[in-house]
Amino acid sequence: MTMPDERTRAVLDAREFLERLSRGELVGESPQALMTWAKALLRHYPENTHLRLASLALPAYWSSPEDAFTEAVPAKHLNFYGAPITTKTKR
Fold this sequence. Notes:
The protein is mainly alpha-helical and about 90 residues long.
């Protein structure tokens, strides 16, 4: 069972991972190391249920996963989980 502090830490750590990746700091890492790191981040990462709850509690800051995308996306542009690969998101 994921505790709230673990979920928060997962979001913060995922941000750090993505920031480092975007700066090219992880270029020398092996694909296996990156996959292991990503898997560890996802262990406690918020699921859609948690995002729905956050959207109900703080609608000015969060939207539900169902409302997150502003346009219909063809199936060929969906990833394994059914989320759009490329689309505009509400901000």
